[in-house]
Amino acid sequence: MTEKGSKPLIKCRDVAIAYDKLLAAEGITFDVFEGDYICITGENGSGKSTLLKGILGLNPLKSGKIDYFGISKREIGYLPQQTSIQRDFPASVYEVVISGCLGKRGIRPYYNKKERQLADYNIERLGIADLKKRSYRELSGGQQQRVMFARALCASERMILLDEPITGLDPMVTAELYSIIRQLNNDGVTVIMVSHDASGAIREAKKILHLDTTMKFFGTAEEYIQSDIGKRFLSR
Q1: How buried is residue 109: exposed, middle or buried, by Cβ count under 10 Å (0-12/13-18/19+)?
Q2: Which residue in 14, 27, 128, 219 could disulfide with 64, CB within 3.0 to 4.6 Å?
Q3: How far apart are CA 118 and CA 107, in angstroms?
Q4: pLDDT tens-digit map of 72-81
Q5: Is the dihedral of CA 75, 79, 81, 84 positive or negative?
Q6: pLDDT tens digits, residue range 49-73?
Q7: Across the strands, what pairs with 180?
């Protein structure tokens, strides 16, 4: 799929990635354009999170190629799936958010004024200013996800990769987080999100990438609804 008059930020060409020595994803070819909102969906074990980590350079490619244009892997914000250890992290909200600036800080032993201002801006942007001094481990699941969104945005204002950001959250919090992602995308942030929530993906994302180890579909959400695999997956 090409975007008329625009250039891709990322090109994936015939990508294959192994995880724990097993082939987890293969034959994946698609482009990511500035302003895209792509949802990667599919069954458990279909290679969704593996592909996300491949784009970030966290999982090495077995074959194929991923090219970056005008953006580097270090300029991509990342919100991973939360583990119980991460949920119990003993730091303040502010400390967690500003840690997203570590890549910008480099070898400096402190954050500079610009980085502190960026953390404060994203804390306000995500509506968590009243939680700034609170311990992260004391927050609800929805509050913690807002904090992690703010952290990801400190790493990058251009592109964020989200791995199952709404898993385990109640419907009201899920709706709030979808609204946040939609607003970020409207503000120009390119979004790639892994999700099991097929109906939410169709409603929110501009494009759908469906994986079942291999790439089964890539196109607009409207095209996915009309496709055979989309009809099967959505009717479960």
Answers
A1: exposed
A2: 14
A3: 19
A4: 888 899 998 8
A5: positive
A6: 999 999 999 989 999 999 999 998 8
A7: none
